[in-house]
Amino acid sequence: xxxxxxxxxxxxxxxxxxxxxxxxxxxxxxxxxxxxxxxxxxxxxxxxxxxxxxxxxxxxxxxxxxxxxxxxxxxxxxxxxxxxxxxxxxxxxxxxxxxxxxxxxxxxxxxxxxxxxxxxxxxxxxxxxxxxxxxxxxxxxxxxxxxxxxxxxxxxxxxxxxxxxx
Length: 166
Prior knowledge:
GO molecular function, one term: catalytic activity
Organism: Ooceraea biroi (Clonal raider ant)
CATH architecture: 4-Layer Sandwich
Strand order of the largest sheet: 1-2-4-3
Pfam family, one: Exo_endo_phos_2
Domain Endonuclease/exonuclease/phosphatase: 85-164
CATH superfamily: Endonuclease/exonuclease/phosphatase
Protein name: Endonuclease/exonuclease/phosphatase domain-containing protein
Number of helices: 3
CATH topology: Deoxyribonuclease I, Chain A
Helix content: 25-40%
């Protein structure tokens, strides 16, 4: 099941989604997390879709890649079991107020607590800015997100402006 994870915001663009899927296949990624996909296929066992179609976890065709099993679908996220890993894909709109953003984090935290098996990967587009992950203009959402992650014992893998490979 070893392999890398590809994460991207596809901005609802068909060509971006085609490139994302081609990259999954050609580069042998085990898993992909797509924020704002163009159009997730209906009832595909390789796709777990949440957030009203705004976030998807996509199982790659890498050798030994286990099946996806949807655990929970929320307004801004989808959680799936992928072998021994609980994967949570996230897309949250940048238009949320700080109070709405905190409510989203409460819902996401509830999901994480309800599915505490083995390893956990939370990835996607949180639309929050913090110097911790290379943003030049931090915002309140970034500070709240960093505190939330620390409170749950989550470790940020992206540090500074370097790309993150999982």
